[in-house]
């Protein structure tokens, strides 16, 4: 059981005020870990996270559940000294802090590199200095054959993490597609347009993306830590491949919305389709539960696939009725409508 596997462990989560980071904080607090350290440079985000946890404590959990089990740390992963403090006595680091919006990173190239590359390097050096046992990096499908600053910086960060794997500190990376409903993602954008009675804007009718839910993604992070042995690249299996145009149409049907869909164009650095893994690795992939992974140290001995499988968002797109079912049942878009557009979806 996951709840027992983290017993008495001290866990550091960077980017803890973000969508995935805050979801991970809450997941780990439900385990038997010793303490969760939540690190972020967003003071307001940390304040709201603390309020959410207090509220959950009152409404859903035993009153002593969170007593002395969480620390809210304000700090920047670029700051090596702060990382040293944050990593002191830590068993597991989950590194979710990043600049992640493609267009913002394109305009702020050096800042994106400082956070995504130099910040990762500073953090993993601090983790090694403090003899952290497990280091898991949250990456993205945009790191595959990247043509954007964000994608290139995340790929460089992946390489830094995997290069630091050794017998004392197990270092691996997990790639996500789009986490539906997360801050700045397309779902809140569409819902805000619906609420304001505006046309829905889609970049390109052909564009596709991988999607998963916050709950599913955060669960798989915990599962990854259970099976990681170091120098692995993990992918979440069974993510939904969806045309953005079809997603917009599904929301129109769900909310009985009559405004038109208007096409803009892809922003600099954006692709029509995304891939989860480079083609050269496909035949080495191994599956375990809801995860796909490659061990970059020992590829041949882990080969499960006799033929190449392309993990590309252009393939096997959900049909419109399947998207509607996904949004209603798994995302619960009607129930969480206000929370999604107010960036509080992971509550």
Overall description:
- By secondary structure, the protein is of the alpha/beta class.
- It has one domain (about 1-340): Rossmann fold, CATH 3.40.50.
- Helix content is about 40%, strand content about 20%.
- Strands 3-2-1-4-5-6-10-14-13 form a 9-stranded mixed β-sheet, sandwiched between helices. Strands 7-9-11 form a 3-stranded mixed β-sheet.
- β5, α7 (about 150-165) and β6 (about 170-175) form a beta-alpha-beta unit.
- It is globular, with a radius of gyration of 20 Å.
- The model has no long low-confidence stretch (mean pLDDT about 90).
Comma- or semicolon-separated keywords:
3-stranded mixed beta sheet, Rossmann fold, alpha/beta, globular, 19% strand
Task: Note the run of SSEs as H and E.
Answer: HEHEHEHEHHEHEEHEEHEEHEEEHH
Structural class estimated from helices and strands: alpha/beta
CATH topology: Rossmann fold
CATH architecture: 3-Layer(aba) Sandwich
Q: How many distinct helices?
A: 12
Strand order of the largest sheet: 3-2-1-4-5-6-10-14-13
Strand content: 15-25%
CATH homolog superfamily? NAD(P)-binding Rossmann-like Domain
Please indicate the count of domains: 1
Largest sheet: 9 strands, mixed
Global shape:
globular
Write the layout of secondary structure elements.
Blueprint: H1 2-5, E1 10-14, H2 19-29, E2 35-40, H3 43-59, E3 70-74, H4 80-87, E4 92-95, H5 102-107, H6 109-129, E5 134-140, H7 149-163, E6 170-176, E7 178-180, H8 186-195, E8 200-202, E9 208-213, H9 214-227, E10 232-236, E11 240-243, H10 244-254, E12 261-263, E13 286-288, E14 291-295, H11 320-330, H12 337-341
Parallel strand pairs: 1-2, 1-4, 2-3, 4-5, 5-6, 6-10, 7-9, 8-12
Antiparallel strand pairs: 9-11, 10-14, 13-14
Helix pairs in contact: 2-9, 4-6, 6-7, 8-10, 10-11
């Amino acid at each position: 059981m996951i709840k027992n596997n983290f017993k008495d462990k001290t866990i550091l989560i960077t980017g803890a005020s973000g969508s995935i980071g805050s979801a991970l904080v809450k997941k780990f607090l439900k385990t038997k870990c010793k303490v969760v350290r939540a690190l972020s440079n967003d003071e307001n985000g940390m304040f709201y996270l603390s309020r959410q946890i207090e509220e959950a404590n009152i409404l859903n959990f035993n009153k002593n559940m969170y007593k002395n089990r969480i620390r809210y740390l304000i700090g920047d992963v670029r700051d090596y000294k702060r990382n040293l403090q944050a990593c002191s006595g830590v068993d597991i680091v989950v590194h979710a802090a990043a600049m992640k919006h493609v267009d913002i990173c394109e305009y702020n190239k050096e800042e994106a590199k400082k956070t995504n590359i130099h910040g990762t390097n500073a953090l993993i050096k601090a983790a090694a200095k403090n003899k952290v046992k497990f280091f898991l990096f949250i990456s993205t499908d945009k790191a595959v054959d990247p043509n954007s600053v964000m994608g290139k910086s995340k790929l460089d960060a992946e390489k830094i993490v995997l290069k630091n794997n050794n017998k004392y500190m197990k270092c691996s990376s997990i790639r996500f597609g789009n986490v539906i409903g997360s801050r700045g993602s397309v779902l809140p954008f569409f819902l805000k347009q619906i609420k304001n009675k505006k046309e829905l804007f889609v970049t390109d009718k052909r564009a596709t993306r991988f999607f998963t839910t916050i709950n599913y993604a955060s669960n798989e992070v915990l599962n990854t830590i259970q099976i990681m042995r170091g120098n692995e690249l993990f992918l979440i299996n069974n993510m939904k491949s969806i045309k953005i145009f079809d997603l917009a149409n599904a929301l129109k049907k769900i909310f009985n919305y009559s405004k038109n869909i208007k096409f803009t164009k892809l922003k600099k650095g954006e692709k029509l389709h995304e891939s989860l893994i480079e083609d050269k690795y496909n035949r080495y992939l191994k599956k375990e539960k809801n995860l796909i992974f490659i061990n970059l140290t020992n590829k041949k001995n882990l080969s499960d696939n006799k033929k190449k499988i392309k993990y590309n968002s252009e393939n096997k797109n959900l049909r419109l009725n399947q998207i509607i079912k996904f949004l209603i049942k798994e995302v619960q878009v009607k129930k969480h409508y206000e929370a999604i557009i107010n960036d509080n979806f992971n509550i």
